[in-house]
Amino acid sequence: MKTEKELKDSVKERYAKIAGQGKAENAASCCGATTPSSKIYNIMMDDYTGTGGYVEDADLGLGCGLPTQYAGIRKGDTVIDLGSGAGNDCFVARHETGAEGKVIGIDFTPAMITKARINADKLGFNNVEFREGDIDDMPVNDDTADVIVSNCVLNLVPDKNKVIAEIFRTLKPGGHFSISDIVLVGELPEALREDAEMYAGCVAGAIQKDDYLQYIKDAGFSHIILQKEKPIVIPDDILTKYLSPEEITDFKKGDTGIFSITVYAEKPGTKKDKPKLKMLDLQTQNAGCTPDSGCC
C-alpha cells in the first residue's frame, strides 16, 4: 500500500498533466487510451452547460456533481472551493455571490493554480482568488467561509477526517457546505484499490458511504442532508485494465456499488436565515435524510 505522501504525489503529477490539456483531450485520452470511455476522470462528470457563471475554459471535466447548484450561495457570501482546479466551480460560485462577495479556490497543484489565475484575469474578477495548499491543511483563517463547496476532491486526500475537520474550522458558525464526492457500498476489488490511476480518478480513494456520513457527523456538523445520489458505472474497457473476465463478471454480479453523492451539512451557530436549498435530486434516498433529522 502506498504511503500518504506517495498517494498525494501521484495525484499531483497526474493533475499537473491534466492542467496542460483541454477538456476534449482529457475526455479522449488517458495513459494511451483512445476512447472517451477509457477516461476514468470523465465517466462521473455532470454537464455544466447552461449553469450561470460557467466558463468553458475552466471546465476540465473532472467533477462528479454540481455542488454549487445545491449550496444555497447568497449575494455577499464568502465561498471556499476545495480542489478548485482551473476555477470552474469558483466562477459558478462567483455568479451566485456577486461582486460584493468573495470566492477562494484552494488547490495543491501549482499548474492548476496558474491556469485558474489566468482564467480569472481574463474574466476581470478581482474577488476570486486562488491559493496553493493542501485541503487537509488549508491556508485559510478560522471562521472564514459562509459556504464551502467541493467537486469530487475529498477522495484524493488519504485522511478524510482531517479534511472534514478543516472544513469545520474554516466555516463561520452557522455556515454550511455542499460537497459532491464518490462513495462505495461494498468493497472494491484489490486491483482497483491499489492502482494510482484509479486513485487519481476518485474511485480507489472512495470510502464507504455510511463511514463518509458518520465522519461528517462526528466532526460536529448538524442537519446532514443527502441532496443527490447517482450510480457510477465503470466501463468494461477500463475494468479490463485491472481485472480478468471472470473477475469482471463477479464484480458486476456482486453487491458493490459506486455512487456520486452531494452532501449538505451545517456548522452549529446562529445565522440570520437559512439558505434556500435545491432539494432533492435522488435516484436513491436514505430513509430519514431530512433537514431536521439528518442522515446519520
Task: Kindly describe this structure.
- With 296 residues, the protein is α/β, with parallel strands linked by helices.
- It has a single domain (4-270), classed as 3-Layer(aba) Sandwich (Rossmann fold).
- Helix content is 32%, strand content 21%.
- It is built from eleven helices and nine strands.
- It has helices at residues 4-19, 23-28, 67-70, 88-97, 110-123, 160-170, 190-194, 196-200, 209-218, 236-239, 245-253; strands spanning 78-82, 102-107, 128-132, 145-151, 171-185, 207-208, 222-231, 257-266, 281-282.
- Strands 1, 2, 3, 4, 5, 6, 7, 8 and 9 form a nine-stranded mixed sheet that branches.
- Helix 1 runs parallel beside helix 5.
- The model is unreliable at 27-39 and 281-296 (pLDDT under 50).
Task: List strands and helices in order, with pairings.
Blueprint: H1 4-19, H2 23-28, H3 67-70, E1 78-82, H4 88-97, E2 102-107, H5 110-123, E3 128-132, E4 145-151, H6 160-170, E5 171-185, H7 190-194, H8 196-200, E6 207-208, H9 209-218, E7 222-231, H10 236-239, H11 245-253, E8 257-266, E9 281-282
Parallel strand pairs: 1-2, 1-4, 2-3, 4-5, 5-6, 7-9
Antiparallel strand pairs: 5-8, 7-8
Structural class: alpha/beta
| CA-CA gap between termini | 30 Å
**Overall geometry:** globular
The major pleated sheet works out as:
9 strands, mixed
Looking at the overall shape, the CATH architecture is: 3-Layer(aba) Sandwich
Count of beta strands: 9
Mean pLDDT: 81
Q: CATH superfamily, please?
A: Vaccinia Virus protein VP39
User: C-alpha Rg, in Å?
Assistant: 18 Å
How many DSSP H or I helices?
11
| Oligomer description | single chain
How are helices and strands ordered from N to C? HHHEHEHEEHEHHEHEHHEE
Low-confidence stretches: 27-39, 281-296
In percent, how helical is the residue content? 25-40%
Strand content: 15-25%
Q: For this structure, what is the CATH class? A: Alpha Beta
Under CATH, the topology can be stated as: Rossmann fold
Give the total of domains.
1
